[in-house]
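Lecture notes, unit on protein representations.

Consider one protein chain, 348 amino acids long.
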Amino acid sequence: MSAPIFGIELSYWQETVLRSVGILAAVLLPAGTFVYLFLFKMVSFMQSRLGPMEAGPFGSMQLLAEVGKFLQKEDIVPERADRKLFKLAPYLVVATVLLVYLAVPFGPQMTFVTNFDGGIFYVLAVSSISALGVLLAGWASANKYSLIGGLRAAGQLIAYELPMVLAVIGVVIQAGTLNMSGIVSAQANGAIFGFDGLGNPYFFTQIIGFCIFMIAVQAELGQTPFDMPIAESELVTGYITEYSGLRFLLFFIGEFASAGAFAAVAATLFLGGWAVPAAWADLDSAIFNLLGPIIMLTKMMILGGLIFFVRFTFPRFREDQLQKLAWTVLIPISLANILATTILKVAF
């Protein structure tokens, strides 16, 4: 069994190695870039300071220094904690990110596992697994602050999963497929009022769905203004209070890797993914197995900048405001968007 990647026929084991390396790069590269570009530099610029400058050129090696610091710290397990679940929780959170990337296409032959028909359904399903890791961390820590943080996170994730799914339905109706590569193709080969120079990125026709999806992503990530599960001033970082060393680092990586994963999904659904408009080039060319990841990463950086701009700009919601926004605002609007999309799809 083989498939042409970069114009070369590869055996099954070679494909497997490349896919394993590719998915690790897809997880770690955006996560590291997000940390340096947005956490270290963008927020520093917004607050009129330089940020880290000593480790490497312009502080570019600061992230490696931080990783080295956490790896050297003692891994402490509270005496009354459930040791097995306490240790399992951070790995479950990181594994969720890996599972999401499995179905995201990065080129014509660059879907890491398979180009299956229910791709977006799979992505939405596995992205919710992280709630289990957060609950495990909160409960197994034997800490009241951690437990409250875990319960808040679970309630928040459940509340915002629904508007996220409903926002995606509009894209699925318009594209006519659940296949992630099919959604990319529909946007690349589409046209806006007969003009195909830009394709038909669903950012324009599904702008309401895009806004709802990005708000739900902000909540799923626990980023401000939805950072109730880890509210430092109330819960002392919530469900990760008792974690140190490598396991704290895994939660940290999981947070930024999840931001990259959701940015990749949003770029695929609303910005055309790895593709450019079909009027510009032959998208079946093997060169897009090289250009595709670069195009995708660029779009992910744009969406990541939006996510972190909101994080460092808005104040935190109260818990009642957070739940009210999901159930009384986002869900009704997303249902109206589905209805409008269905009518327009049938009419035109």
